[in-house]
Design goal:
The protein is an alpha+beta fold and 106 residues long. It has one domain. The chain has 4 helices and 5 strands, in the order ααββαβββα.
Length: 106
């Protein structure tokens, strides 16, 4: 039973629950285009908007100092990229890093 509830928790976290307030905030983050927010996590909702090779429903988090997490249940993939650097070039690094990872899966 714990396994079922854990998988359900992951599913619920990744659902898209964006509000208009979050929409305004994320409009300034070009590297999050094509993503919305579930229960606290970035969720991939538009391949056309993001230019990402990851499947819809991939979710994760981007930290303020450059940390980056991807969880993709469809591909059975988890990626954790860690750095702690202010002015970390996140808009440049994260989309490229993600597409490099996914291109290696093909």
């Amino acid at each position: 039973m714990p396994i079922k509830s854990s998988l359900y928790s992951i599913y619920i976290a990744a659902l898209f629950y964006i509000t208009s307030a979050l929409e305004i905030l994320t409009d300034n983050w070009a590297h999050h285009a094509g993503y919305g927010y579930g229960l606290g996590v970035r969720t991939h909702i538009s391949k056309a908007g993001s230019g990402s090779l990851s499947p819809l429903g991939e979710f994760g988090w981007s930290g303020a100092a450059g940390c980056f997490a991807i969880i993709d249940t469809e591909s059975q993939l988890t990626v954790m990229y860690a750095q702690h650097l202010v002015n970390n070039q996140e808009p440049y690094v994260h989309p490229r890093l993600k597409n490099i990872v996914y291109s290696c899966l093909s």
